[in-house]
Amino acid sequence: MMAEFEKWLARVLLLNSVLAVAVVFGLLGPAHEDGALAGLVLAAVLGCVSAALCLRGRVAGLWGGLLYYGLQVLSYYPHDGGRAFSVKAGTSIGVVWQLHGATLVLNLIALALLAATLLVLYRRRPTGKIQP
Questions:
Q1: What confidence tier does 130 reach under pLDDT thresholds 50, 70, 90?
Q2: Mean pLDDT lowest for which of 55-69, 73-87, 93-107?
Q3: Burial level of 82, CB count in 10 A (0-12/13-18/19+)?
Q4: How far is C-alpha 38 from the chain's CA centre?
Q5: Nearest alpha-carbon partner for 4 in 120, 128, 122
Q6: Torsion angles phi and psi, residue 82, rounded to 5
Q7: Residue 99: is its pLDDT beyond 80?
Q8: Distance (Å, whole) CA 33 – CA 22
Q9: Residues 21, 26, 31, 33: is their CA dihedral positive or negative?
Q10: How far apart are CA 62 and CA 121, in angstroms?
Q11: How far apart are CA 87 and CA 70, in angstroms?
């Protein structure tokens, strides 16, 4: 049962990564600035490599998935045009907070997938029991 969930999670990671690649090439969404595009390219590559490793059953792919989703959980946009932080790769449904000097976005899909990846990693941890 857990192996099937892990495969499903890897396929979702692959789908999100392919969507990020589509964003990089301008097929989805508006054009990005050079600095934002570099971060998006790195996130897309991280997602694709992590998904491939996950589909092969490697734990490193799960750790890469954690990093991939972790980058997407929070986005920060200052109102004064200062330094923003956002990696908008894959899909996003978010909760938006309008703060005094900035807008903060919590990506609920990335948060749920981050939690699911943590669950799979937790279940795969060594138990320390000696197998006969």
A1: low
A2: 73-87
A3: exposed
A4: 16
A5: 120
A6: -75, -160
A7: yes
A8: 16
A9: positive
A10: 7
A11: 10
The residues near 46 (Cβ < 8 Å, ≥ 6 apart) are: 17, 64, 67, 68
- Mutual orientation of helices 34-55 and 2-24 as an angle, nearest 10°? 150
In the numeric block, which tokens belong to residue 28?
Answer: 């989805």
Beta bridge partners of 95: 106
Please state the three-class secondary structure of the chain as a single string. CHHHHHHHHHHHHHHHHHHHHHHHCCCCCCCCCHHHHHHHHHHHHHHHHHHHHHHCCCHHHHHHHHHHHHHHHEEEEECCCCCCECCCCCCCCEEEEECCCEEEEEEHHHHHHHHHHHHHHHHHCCCCCCCC
Average pLDDT, the chain: 85
Residue with tokens 């997938």: 113
